[in-house]
Amino acid sequence: MTARRIHIVGAGIAGLSAALAVTKEGGEAILYEAAPQPGGRCRTLHPTVGFPHDNGTHVLFTANRHALNLLKAVGARDRWIEPEPKGLPIHDMRTGTKQRIGLSPWSWLWPSRRPKGLGLADLSRIVRLAFPAQECSVGSIIGDRPIMDSLIGPLTVAVLNTPPNVASAKRLALALRRLLWPRSGRLLVAKNGLGEDLIQPAVAALQARSVSILTGQRLRHLLTNGERVIGLSLTDRTVALGPEDCVILALPPYEVERLIPVLPVPQRFEAILNIHFRLTGLEKPRFIGFTGALTQWRLVRRDHVSVTISAADAVICRNSTDLAISLA
């Protein structure tokens, strides 16, 4: 009998996760990655000029059970720590006030953890948002209530990277319902960075299962016979597929569209902009939220600060130097 292989194109976090799932069930997986290294958009960058930093401010909710299970599977759960166990610090740049808020409704039992402006009327709106009867925007449910600025707005751009006035209430509801479970509203960050605390453990786990990760291999074309894929045309080789082999495309939508033009893919996106400042920071990471400012989050590490602007289409084309100065 011909052995069945799963060919996974793309060694970002989706591709690595797929390979772990395949090999957990005893299957054989081969990974192909166009970049010189695995990790995709969840890796630590090592530029020739500058300093090492993650290519984003990646924060994990404990409500994300799948991600936590992935960390446990590769032996990296203890490398992700809670930088703000007393609640997320929020700085209002318009008033200069500071507050710590809880992200789980259960934490609002303590007055000090309640989002600014939260009232009884808001609770019914939050319930409607968590269980929307029909598709609508987040903004149409919450309106101009103070909690839009202090809680729902920042949560929406953090989860969906979309402004609340156009963000899908049903999609945000999927995350909100998970936050109803006790201790699901905690935020975790990689203690040392994505490379050391996520990608390297995942790669090590796959190597222990004899998984090959072939880097520098961009998929040029899918070779087909009728409706069946029979081969992969890569950067410097062609891989013939066996009759029982399968292919997983763990790629961005635009790459999937290039390879399979007839397949509908998402067409609308919002940019995320990250700017990294080399500064003497803190021994332990800190994660700080902002309202009334261009940025929503800042992650403070030992030797640098990473600033995130989510839903950044309006500023992505601005001069980078001017933008960095405005955020400093």
Automatic annotation (TrEMBL):
Domain Amine oxidase: 13-278
Gene3D superfamilies (alphabetical): FAD/NAD(P)-binding domain
One Pfam family here: Amino_oxidase
Transmembrane stretches, start-end: none
A GO molecular-function descriptor: oxidoreductase activity
Protein name: Amine oxidase domain-containing protein
Organism: Microvirga vignae
